[in-house]
What does this fold into?
Amino acid sequence: MSPLLEVEGLAVSLPTPSGQVQVIKHLDLYVNSGEIVGIAGESGSGKSLTALTLLNLLPPGAVVEGSVRFDGRELVGLERREWQDVRGGGIAMVFQDSSSALHPMLSIGTQLTEHMGVGRSEARARAVELLDRMRIPRPETALRRYPHQFSGGMRQRIALAIALARRPRLLIADEPTTALDVTVQAGILALLEELRRDGDLAVLFITHDLGVLSALAQRAYVFYAGRVMESGATGDVLTAPRHPYTAALLGARPHGLSTTRSLRAIPGSPVSAAEVLPGCPFQPRCTFAEDACAATPPPVLPIGDGRALACRVAPELT
Ligand SMILES: Nc1ncnc2c1ncn2[C@@H]1O[C@H](COP(=O)(O)OP(=O)(O)OP(=O)(O)O)[C@@H](O)[C@H]1O
Ligand SMILES: [Mg+2]
It folds into this structure.
């Protein structure tokens, strides 16, 4: 069976004052139906741009090369109106900042039901059910209320309900819980897992938090400077990393995987995805680097057990 989402050789460049700059460099990634897949990486590594590419939400002048297939359909090169049905029922997105997803002047009920495409009473019933699943108290009353009448954590859950209202098969969630306190975050993560199990929902979950990644995702991709450094089953990647960058990320966590705190800096500055380097982007910060690492970027190669690694040296890491 082929994956629900299959990204092959994806490259994205954006216009900048100094010309077109390639930000995503030859990305391969897949998500099976009913699977939660995580993308982790430091700020500027290209996580959000990858998400925006999958929904054709890039800024004007962006150039996309390679292939993105969703449910067997090629998305790269689709016409604007063809994107409407991809966003309509296929792929939905929820962002870190829920206020950008909710319209302040429209009631929750209007925002939940406007794109359902079913009759009024059915839409209402479905909206109530969705809010109930999101643990919003008194859903019937909530439908008549406006975003400002809810707390930040509730707004985030309402934004999630709106994203799910059209029954997408893939939800792209870009740091949806980063701004929330730990208990609300745990509730949302549990909910996503429940939806995956019951509804066959696939989720592409973006986070810089390795604790969240290990709690939620079956498989993980570690991004650095617009490339995948390492991928595989989340447990394998986080307990037995093969890439010096993944190991450094794990080492940089103040209290191991058991907390939800964010990363402390790895020595040296992170390379932004927009920077152009001839070799491995992590080479300037890597204690294992050899001469060849600075010359050309290492290819991402399979290393067994469904894992892939972009490191020429592949040192023994403990
Ligand atoms: N509109 C744009 N024009 C030019 N460059 C951009 C644009 N948006 C992002 N970039 C560059 O692309 C790189 C990746 O950005 P992206 O937003 O995908 O990072 P990210 O991994 O989501 O980081 P964060 O964890 O901070 O959200 C950044 O280094 C940024 O400089
Ligand atoms: Mg981002």
The chain has ten helices and 13 strands.
